[in-house]
Design a protein that fits this description.
heterodimer; A: D-Maltodextrin-Binding Protein, domain 2; D-Maltodextrin-Binding Protein, domain 2; five-stranded mixed β-sheet; B: BirA Bifunctional Protein, domain 2; BirA Bifunctional Protein, domain 2; 3 domains; seven-stranded mixed β-sheet; 15 helices; transferase (chain B); glycosyltransferase (chain B); glycosyltransferase activity (chain B)
Chain lengths: ~230, ~350
């Protein structure tokens, strides 16, 4: 069996089902709505595995599933040297969200990364600590700021409600996913120019084919032909 | 390479360093993360293993020995002093999983403010001796020249400090240099902001730890900077000329003498460079063929701030030995008390590989 991992709930799941459906492959939940079991029609030899989107990168890398749908941001964040571990098969055109850096609107002097870097230097001098950026995307943000040569910051972990941390004074800036920017504005934040770290969307990935059986390879080929990717 | 072979090679190198007068020292594998984070910033998290102690908080598996050895030296008040150490260090290898995560470093550190040129030459020559006849090429640089050139610019202290802060981040250094040199147009948004008499009109409420006063102060700094003349093209050309140097040491020296005519402020740094070459020559180093690169050492983890060098395998280009001067690091760790220092590490595993291939 060729195992296909798909997000187990919400819009991401529905859109994924739609995307496959439009290409003649029907994915559906089997049994009751609460069960995470699935079925595939339109092709033999494919098993649907419903998983949390956040677990799909790791399961792909571990070889527990052969293909998977998840956000391109999650793959880049969770897998070191991601492109050596998984392959991108298709950008699916939904689930779009940008990983950006946002600062308080009151920082009228900070518009670019250049400004953020200079503000961080002054902040460290005045407060005796590095400027804190709250995020759950540690790898992506750190690599981005390293490549851009931004200094005197530190990352603090925030797994949810990240927009609120500045008000609560647990961080000075944030790096988070946004689709419209509305929540940011409501929390008195603005997006930094040049601070787009990654434009994410739902993406179909495959794992490393090293240990696949001939049957799995054949099914994979057949599925790709059906999906036209 | 077998562990036994690496251990034997490490002992051989240690013996060379001990014969040069170094006292063997040890350091704990787990180091408080705070000190390393403070020195190296967030980048170190991407390179060192972080773990957690219920009492001591965040700890790191040592990514090198330099910090603990400097701390130990600063507490001992001994001067001059020279140390050697040998043991495993730990580095994450996210970007190239084929590289070793745990490997042995054998190090040699000299704390001696009397004669920096002689100390530089001593460390370089001792490492060269320890590498014996391995097929390696040397690379050298001198961050001190770049620092002297930045310090010598005819511009504000704020601009010099900003450039100095980014000497080890070439990309941002260049952006700053272009901006201060007036080589890029000021963005319209920035001009509008500086011209705005009431910039906080649409700023919303004040949130977070960075106060409105701090924002105001930076606006003042930006206005002062906007009113200042750009750094001259000649001076920027000097900095670029230093960064572009890539020749054998004697050619570099004569180029530096030429550059110093345009910027006399680097004369002392050029003098130190010359004194170092003399000292190296006296130690039997063939300086006539010694390569030098002006931007060498700007992207390393350590913040070397003077002489920098490395030895690389001829075929695979892997860094068998690296070293340099780190006076500023001792000042930070010594809380104001400096102890001029120069040191180097050799990787016995890579040395064996280079010899075998």
């Amino acid at each position: 069996m060729l195992k296909l991992g798909v997000p187990s709930k919400g819009r991401l799941m529905e859109k994924t089902f739609q995307w496959f459906g439009q290409r003649g492959v029907t994915l559906r939940k089997s049994g009751s709505d609460r069960e995470y079991a699935g079925a595939v029609d339109g092709i033999d030899g494919v098993e649907l595995v419903l998983l949390s989107a956040g677990e799909i990168p790791r399961e792909l890398a571990a070889g527990n599933i052969h293909m998977g749908v998840t956000g391109s941001d999650l793959v880049r964040e969770k897998l070191p040297a991601w492109d050596t571990q998984v392959g991108e098969l298709a950008l699916m055109g939904f689930g779009g969200a940008d990983l950006i850096i946002a600062v308080p609107q009151g920082w009228v002097d900070v518009e670019s990364l250049d400004d953020l870097d200079a503000a961080a230097a002054a902040f460290r001098q005045k407060h005796g600590m590095r400027l804190r950026i709250a995020t759950k995307y540690h790898r992506l943000v750190r690599e981005f700021l390293r490549d851009e040569g931004v200094a005197d910051y530190r990352l603090v972990d925030s797994q949810g409600a990240t927009e609120g941390v500045v008000k609560n004074e647990t961080a000075e800036a944030i790096a988070d996913i946004t689709s419209t920017g509305e929540t940011l504005r409501a929390n008195g934040l603005k997006i930094l120019d040049g601070g787009l770290i990654h434009a994410s969307q739902a993406t179909l990935f495959r794992g490393r084919r090293r240990d696949w059986t001939d049957a799995q390879r054949a099914t994979f080929k057949e599925l790709l032909a059906l999906l036209d990717v | 390479m077998t562990t036994a072979a690496i251990k034997a090679e490490a002992s051989r190198i240690s013996a060379v360093f001990e014969a040069a007068g170094a006292v063997p020292v040890e350091a704990e594998i787990m180091q408080p993360a705070e000190v390393l984070l403070d020195l190296y910033g967030e980048d170190i998290r991407g390179r060192a293993y972080v773990t957690d102690d219920p009492v001591q908080g965040e700890m790191m598996l040592r990514p090198d020995f330099t910090v603990p050895v400097v701390q130990m030296h600063m507490q001992s008040h001994a001067s001059p002093a020279r140390y050697t150490y040998s043991g495993p260090v730990f580095r994450k290898q996210d970007e190239d999983p084929s590289r070793a995560r745990e490997y042995t470093q054998v190090g040699f550190e000299v704390f001696d403010g009397q004669n920096p040129a002689a100390a530089d030459a001593d460390v370089f020559a001792t490492v060269q001796t320890a590498l014996a006849d391995a097929p390696v090429r040397a690379a050298t640089g001198d961050i001190g020249l770049l620092k002297a050139a930045v310090a010598g610019l005819q511009t504000s202290d704020a601009r010099k400090a900003a450039l100095m802060r980014h000497i080890w981040r070439p990309k941002r250094f260049k952006i700053l240099l272009d901006r201060f040199g007036g080589r890029v147009a000021v963005p319209a948004k920035r001009l509008a902001l500086l011209a705005n008499e009431n910039p906080f009109a649409d700023a919303g409420p004040e949130v977070g730890l960075r106060s409105r006063q701090e924002v105001q102060q930076r606006l003042d700094t930006l206005r002062a900077d906007a009113a200042m003349a750009p750094i001259s093209g000649e001076e920027i050309a000097v900095i670029e000329a230093i960064l572009a140097l890539s020749e054998t040491a004697p050619h570099v020296l004569s180029a530096l003498h030429d550059i110093a005519v345009d910027m006399p402020a680097i004369r002392r740094a050029v003098g130190r460079f010359e004194a170092r070459l003399d000292a190296m020559s006296a130690r039997g180093v063939d300086v006539e063929t010694l390569p030098f690169e002006g931007s060498y050492g700007r992207t390393s983890l350590e913040y070397y701030d003077g002489f920098v060098f490395g030895f690389y395998g001829l075929k695979d280009n892997r860094p068998v030995a690296t070293g340099g001067r780190y006076d500023a690091l001792t000042e930070v760790l010594g809380e104001g008390r400096a102890a001029p220092a120069v040191g180097a590490v050799i990787r016995p595993d890579l040395l064996l590989e280079v010899r075998a291939c």
